[in-house]
Write a structure and sequence with these properties.
The protein is rod-shaped. It is an alpha+beta fold. Helix 3 packs antiparallel against helix 5, helix 14 packs antiparallel against helix 15 and helix 16 packs across helix 18. Strand 6 and strand 7 form a beta hairpin. The protein has five domains: 123 residues, no CATH class; 102 residues, PAS domain (Beta-Lactamase, 2-Layer Sandwich); 113 residues, Beta-Lactamase, CATH 3.30.450; 95 residues; 153 residues, 2-Layer Sandwich (Heat Shock Protein 90). The chain has 19 helices and 17 strands. A five-stranded antiparallel β-sheet has the order 2-1-5-4-3, with helices on both faces. Strands 7-6-10-9-8 form a five-stranded antiparallel β-sheet, sandwiched between helices.
Length: 610
């Protein structure tokens, strides 16, 4: 014995006591009724089998031995005999009875053990069936629910009894019922084969759940065929798929609105995938055409092929991000400007496995930039014309001086020719002076005409000092009118620039006129100083300083904003246009306070050698 043996002994003693009483009653009854030893023994054997269903094997053996002894003793003749002599006479009966009892008891014990195991297994499987997060139900051939597990019923908000006996179609959304019926019909036509589909179910409160349904049509023995159906809740997966679909739709719409396409290229296979907008940018139909590496490269404008290949190859070798702008030619021959950005993707071990990127159609932006540049050019010309209009009196004075001198020299020439003996040397000198004054007037008119001319900027090699001198000569009379002196401090041997002479003259003219304007009401020294020098970065820096009222501290940052002005009659365009001109030449323009008073405007320009 193992375990709690006192308890086992007490249990065996109780079983033997109870079994002994039962057997004694049965044997006595058989004897009194005259049934004989065989009939009474059979009754006792039956009782022993029944007792063994509840008792242990030990108690069954003990009761069996006691029953044999009691039968032998009671049914012997005479009543009191020697038990040993009786057993000797009928050995077969002594052996058969307990052996039969033991065999039957052992078999009953085995059956009871297997029944217990089967009952436990059934309990476990039922627990699994009831608690597993899947809806299981049986449906008869007419579509009526025969049974359903508790979880499945609770999933839809019902009790098991509420679904049993109801049509299965009632739990599915009306729009999906034909789909369910079609699949059940196919299952019935192919017994034993499973069919899987997705459909929507209705919760008791009206909510809709997505389910993945698996059904099979089977027949068990002689019973009616039945549908075995399982239903897995896939609502979260469907919601995630719908969220991804919406996200992709939003992304595609955003790409379409922004004219931005995306792409990816697997470097191991060379396979390229592209978004629908990417396909549209290249002038093709996303529903019919696919892009590949060869096609995208062939679409690059011939003039941009070498540059594009160089950028791509350099990026692939370095494994770094890269971006650039180039032109593509669509199948219909139209040319589009695109801005490309690429980003590397590294796999395990740091190996470069993929490139992803975007392509933005910037044609409209390029056209807008060109239109804006042209508008600035036209506006700058208008600004020059406005400035020249303001300088009309000064220009008239500038032109009048050489003309008046030429007239005076011509009169002198006539007087010397009218003399009795003409002084030819004086005549020649007067004629040469006329030529010089005429050339000077023509130069002034030519400079003024160039400021009025309309056309694209003409860049050429020039020296900044020449531009400064020409502008100072042009504005000399305007400065004299307001008692302003203009002094120049020009760097000797400065390198040449590649720039548009007229545009640089306009910048200097704006800055000098602003300085003259700032000193109109100032008492004391009125001076404009223009300096040119070589900056540390080998650029040429030009500064125009005045001794005027200076820069308003609260408005200094806005001086270069378009339409911002501190003048009562100003347009707010001069400094804005000047900065755009300097920026277009690759330089910078800024303003600083001048000590002890006034303001200084500086700009830098790259030299031709940079």
């Amino acid at each position: 014995m193992t375990g709690d043996w006192p308890s086992q002994l007490r249990r065996i003693a109780a079983e033997c006591l109870f079994g002994g009483v039962v057997l004694a009653v049965l044997i006595f009854a058989g004897f009194r009724l005259g049934l004989g030893v065989a009939a009474t023994g059979f009754i006792c054997l039956t009782a022993l089998v029944l007792l063994s269903l509840r008792g242990s094997l030990t108690s069954s053996v003990l009761l069996s031995a006691a029953a044999v002894a009691a039968l032998a003793y009671i049914f012997s003749k005479p009543i009191v005999v020697d038990l040993k002599a009786y057993i000797t006479r009928d050995v077969a009966l002594a052996i058969a009875f307990p052996l039969t009892t033991l065999i039957v008891t052992w078999l009953v014990k085995g059956v009871r053990k297997r029944a217990a195991a089967l009952s436990e297994s059934e309990h476990h499987w039922r627990a699994i069936f009831e608690q597993t997060p899947t809806m299981y139900f049986l449906i008869d051939a007419n579509g009526t629910v025969q049974s359903v597990n508790g979880f499945g019923a609770a999933q839809l908000g019902y009790a098991v009894s509420e679904l049993a006996g109801q049509p299965v179609m009632g739990i599915f959304l009306e729009a999906d019922r034909s789909l369910v019926q079609d699949n059940l019909t196919l299952c019935a036509q192919t017994p034993g084969q499973s069919r899987v589909w997705e459909a929507r179910k209705i919760h008791k409160d009206g909510a809709v759940l997505w389910a993945r349904v698996n059904a099979k049509f089977v027949r068990w023995g002689a019973s009616e065929p039945i549908f075995l159906v399982s239903s897995e809740d896939i609502t979260q997966r469907k919601e995630a798929e719908e969220a991804v679909r919406r996200s992709e739709a939003y992304l595609q719409e955003a790409q379409r609105l922004g004219h931005i396409g995306s792409w990816a290229q697997d470097l191991s296979t060379g396979v390229m995938t592209a978004s629908p907008e990417m396909v549209r940018i290249f002038g093709r139909d996303p529903a019919k055409d696919l892009l590949n590496v060869t096609l995208t490269r062939e679409s690059v404008h011939p003039d941009d092929q070498a540059f594009t290949n160089q950028v791509v190859e350099r990026g692939a070798k370095s494994g770094a991000d890269f971006e650039f702008e180039h032109r593509i030619v669509r199948p219909d021959g139209t040319i589009r400007h695109v801005h490309s950005v690429a980003h590397p993707v590294f796999g395990e071990g740091g190996a470069l496995v993929e490139y992803t990127g975007t392509v933005m159609d910037v044609t409209d932006h390029k056209q807008s930039e060109e239109a804006l540049r042209q508008a600035y050019t036209d506006l700058a010309r208008v600004n020059r014309i406005t400035t020249i209009g303001e300088l009309t009196a000064s220009l008239a004075h500038e032109v009048n001086q050489p003309i008046a001198a030429a007239v005076a020299n011509a009169n002198a020439c006539l007087r010397w020719l009218a003399a009795d003996t003409p002084d030819l040397e004086e005549v020649r000198a007067a004629a040469e002076a006329i030529v010089r004054n005429g050339a000077r007037a023509a130069e002034i008119i030519g400079r003024t005409r160039r400021l009025f001319e309309k056309g694209a900027p003409q860049r050429e090699p020039l020296e900044i000092d020449d531009v400064v001198r020409e502008t100072v000569l042009l504005l000399g009379s305007e400065a004299s009118r307001y008692a302003v002196s203009i002094r120049t401090f020009l760097a000797a041997g400065a390198p040449e620039l590649v720039a548009d002479r007229v545009q640089l003259q306009q910048v200097l003219m704006n800055l000098i006129l602003n300085g003259i304007e700032a000193m109109r009401e100032v008492e004391g020294r009125r001076e404009i100083a223009i300096r040119s020098q070589i900056a540390d970065d080998k650029q040429i820096m030009v500064s125009v300083s005045d001794t005027g009222v200076g820069l308003p501290p609260e408005q200094a940052e806005r001086l270069f904003d378009t339409f911002f002005t501190t003048k009562p009659n100003g347009t707010g365009m001069g400094l804005s246009i000047s900065r755009s001109i300097i920026s277009a030449h690759g330089g910078k323009l800024w303003a600083e306070p001048n000590e002890p008073r006034g303001a200084v405007f500086r700009f830098t320009l790259p030299t031709a050698a940079i």
